Amino acid sequence: FQEKLEESREATEEPPEAGCDSEAEYEELEPRLKYHRVGQGNTDLPRILDKDFITCLAVHSKFICVGTNWGNIYILDHMGNNIQGRSLSGHSTTVNQISVDEKGEYLASCSMDERVIIHNLFNKKTYSTLKLDKPVYAVAISPNFAATQSYVTGDDRLILVEPGFIKKQHRVLAEARPNCGAIRCIVWANSLVVWGTEEGVRAYCLVERRSLTSLPRPATETDRTAAFIQASDEANFIAAFRRSVYICRIAPDPNSGRRVGQIVASFSFPMTVCGICGFGKELLLLSQKEKEKPQLHLVEPGIDTYVELAIEELKVRGFERYSPANFRFEQLRSEGMYFIVCPKDIICAQQRDRSDHLQWLLSRGKFKQALDDVQQGGSIGEFTAASVGRKYIDHLLSVGQFGQAAELCQTVLSGKEEWEAMAYQFHQAGCTSALARHLPKSKPQLDTSVYDLVLNEVFKTDREQFLELINSWPSNLFSVRAVTRVVAEDLSRQPNDQILNRCLARLYELSGEHEKTLSILLKLRSCDAFALVRRHRLHSHVVNKLPLLFNINRERTLQMLLDDQAGFSISSIISELSSNSGLLCDYLDAVHLKDPARVEKHADKMVELYADHARQKLLPFLRSSSGFKYELALALCADRQLTEETVYILARMGRRRDALNLLLDEQQFDRVVQFCRDEADPELWMAAAEAASDRPRLITTLLENSGSEVDPAILIHKIQPGMVVPGLRNSIVKLLSDYRVGTALTQGCATIQSQDCQNLIHKQIAFARRPMSVSPSSNLCVRCRTPLLADGEAPPDAGEAHLLLFNCGHYFHAECRQGSEAAAVADTDCPACAGMCY
């Protein structure tokens, strides 16, 4: 169909603006039908039509039946070949209608010769014949004729012919009405029979044996041609007069419950209707104006209107000689086929399948939609993902969308030959660089010449992409040495080109010339050198280039040296970095942090390096290390006037007095106090106090910080008459204040201790006074392990010490305590708790 969106036009009912191409505003829709002419090529239908012309047609899934003006009936396949090789005889003049049962075994025909003939298509014989008194225009055979042996026909009456006891019975289903004319069309669907006359359409139920509905010809219809009828089942049928269309349904009446016919939709049509067929929820209408090409309309019916979705002019042979009465429109519902018939031609319209859909998409340039359809729905016929995809790629290349075409290759192409052919196609289009990133590296692996071709083209157009490719491609894909020569030759003309240098370095690496690769990377000051050394174990080649590596990246160089301790010896690195003590300090410090034992023998060197480049790390190193020589370290620190480090070394050497004197000479009195505390040596405190006699600030410092280590009286006696001691008053005030605070703390502690003792004594007394539960018959003597009183024994008299009970819970007979070693224990003590009874 040549599609148009008429629906939106009718909804707005506004004409397009002046100068606007209204057709361009609507997107072309895909046709719903495809067409072919029955009898094309070397078939029998053209020869039949050379000497006769068609008057009616019946269709079946196995064949089509053509009735002609000379009374012949031909059984043809759908291509137009005569299946039986001859015609069915029996009629002497025009065949008006043909009807075939569902199985395709029997055929009924009627003619102007007033006869109805039933043909057996198996034995090609006439099954039965019915002679009426008038020309017969319509006949309908039972869908299950083999079982029912019945058919419906008539002149101006509707007659059901069915088997009788002896002969066939002719039962009149409907009598003729005045001026209604002959029955022109009959349709039989299950138990429903629908027929049309010049005056209207009627429906009859064979099961209920009654009329279901009557549809009169509209008053607006001036043409008295009988209606065209199609019935999809026993509950639905459509009828079309020349300019009116009705959709009817057989359903129970809400009041009576009996089945009746109801009009569910109707509309007027502006063209002269020649036939009607159902098309899902839509309708196909065949129309013609006198001596013009017939048209097929696809319409969507409403309750009282319609929307025309599409229209197609049909190229029928000899259309200019025909009127609407010369056309027929038949439907083969099971196959989705429609036949447009005129005296000299048969056009078959068929619902389009996926192949037609894909072909239409491709013809309209909708390649992506076609490819998506094939990928989701699977291949069909010649349309596979590969074939459609290649057409899409060809289209993209033709419009210059090279990147999208290259991406699509990964989805579409699979075999080696396909990829190689596509590579040469991209090369011819001058867009090899677009495909380069998408070429497969394996499965399949292409010929080396293909990769060489791609690299050569990319090298000419995009050096950065060339570098990306050689970095990602394995060396077995392309001719490494040949490509290396090309790059080296180009680099000789542009020696400072960064990209070319990096390309050549990568190619040297692929060819195994790692030293050349390293040399180029170092020249470029590239951090890739570190990865190269790690990959190919080039430690021996970089030991003499360590300063250069440090300049490239200090942290990564240190990390490389630390990570591969087997490849780099500390001695060789010290030797190489001896001229750059700063780098050597960083290296040894990093090793010391990771594994102090490895640099223990280089401790003297580290002391010197720390002293020169990392003063803040020297003292922690001196405290943690024992491998350095004290004398060398002392001389070095003293030479550089590193007082704190010198004091620490002197202390470790046992020369505490020298260390104290150094601090005193430097007048670092706060550090003097800290040093004395750290060493915890009373002699150092006394030495410091002795040195205070001529150092007034030291007196103040000791008074404020020495605490109980130095008697304040000694310090005060060191003050000579007339000596100015800065801050002395504040120091003495602080000393006295501290003394008062100390005294208060001591008194407070004594008070708390006294209170605690009293509380504990009270608790002890309360514990001693608490009652004890004693059962003389069950509690045992600790010494003899017998009950305190035997059963029936009377308690002792008052004043007689017979039993001894202790607050600890132990019990004794008095004689047991006196007659044992427990008697040596004081009377107030428990022998058991004293350990004398065990």
TrEMBL record:
GO terms for biological process: cellular response to starvation; endosomal vesicle fusion; macroautophagy; protein targeting to vacuole. One of its GO terms (cellular component) is HOPS complex. CHCR repeats lie at residues 558-701. The keyword Zinc applies. Residues 781-833 form the RING-type domain. WD repeats lie at residues 88-129. Residues 1-23 are annotated as: Disordered. Keywords: Metal-binding, Protein transport, Transport, WD repeat, Zinc, Zinc-finger. Pfam families: Beta-prop_Vps41, TPR_Vps41. It comes from the Eukaryota. The keyword Zinc-finger applies. This is RING-type domain-containing protein. It comes from Macrostomum lignano.
